[in-house]
Amino acid sequence: METLWKMVFYILNFTVYLFLIWWVVNKYLVATMAAASLEYWIFFFVIILLAVSSVGYWVAHYFWNSGYWGMFFKNMGIFLLALFVLVNKEVIETGSSDFCKRGKVFEWYMGISSPKYYSIVNIKTELLYPNGSKTVYDEYIYANSDWGNAQRSIGSSDKQEIPTKLHAKWLSYREGENGQLYEGTFDLPYDMILNLFRNGYIYQYTDSEIVKDEYTGISVGLAPGGVVALWVSGSHRRVQVGCWIADKLSADDELFASWGGQKKRVERLRSTDSYDNIPDHIKNKPIGQWEKYNQTYPYRYNVSFVDSEPESLLIETHYYNGERFQSGIDDTVIRSKACPKKITLIWKKGDDEYFACIQFEETYLFRSFEQMVVAPSFELCFAVNKGSNFIDCFLQGDGKRIELPDEYRKIKIFRNHKMVYGNYSQEGIEFWGEGYLY
Fold this sequence. Notes:
This protein is α+β, with helices and mostly antiparallel strands. Helix content is 29%, strand content 36%.
């Protein structure tokens, strides 16, 4: 009978021990450990159990030859461990960050993007996670953002898992007479996204300083034609990790019953849309254009100066597929990448700092890039004149050269924050209007 009571006592004691450790960790360390893999949890419990139990039993048996005293010491160890965690929870959370990055939990926010001038109504966007849970983002109007640039951050940036699936349903209300509904569910490239968050990225902060940074956001892009894109972003970089096509849906008057049906809803949206009267060359952009933006080309930048090389040079590029890179390193290496939408050059000569924004007319730029694909690789060249107040632009590769003349580009050049050149006001230059010069 005594043996039976001992067994019950040991089982209850062990159960209480596990529950206490679970409660402390779940309540105070859930932000950094709750979603860690099962192997880490097992390792954590086993190590604590062996450490506390073995030390307690060893002390009791050595001094008093008593198993009950051993149990007492084990329980005291559990109490002190819990007290230590409670008192030092902030230190433990900070110290556990590297451990947790080997798991699957990161700080990130969610955003939704639509192309400028092509507003949408997000009816429902859902992110689904490996544990079966999901985050739902309900109806909201997205307008006047730029493709890839999330207009609105949704939710907090607390530590959370990486999603495995995306479901989106939205109304593209600038399409057709009554707008167009789209819906689709897509498998996300989980391993690719996970590796980006784990490894972060490096960028050239100054000519001599290279900085390592982390990705902090996931953005969903919803465009005409049912195009759905996903980007992972940080302060100085945005990388596209996937692009899909959603299914077209028939008009759904029941969905918009409170507005008098889908047609009435679209009419109301357009009547309050400040971009309803935009020019036709912007309004009538081909529906398949956002798919075309994902086409990549093997090229690099070649920035040259007539008089002398600058002391420093930084390049920032916004690409048509929504990506963004800020680095003098990446942009001067030949790699396959999308067409550049807006390019910023920053250089320094002596006491003067220069800042140039360059944007090309979209149709002409894409046509020129297509003509260069016969070459194994090519360069997008920027030749800065002696006074650093004009930039000649052209493509070259494999003995071929295509000029990007003044009538197909907009350029602003600043010296020490004062503009020294700008052709952005020239008549006859028409752009589809997604990009802008600042």
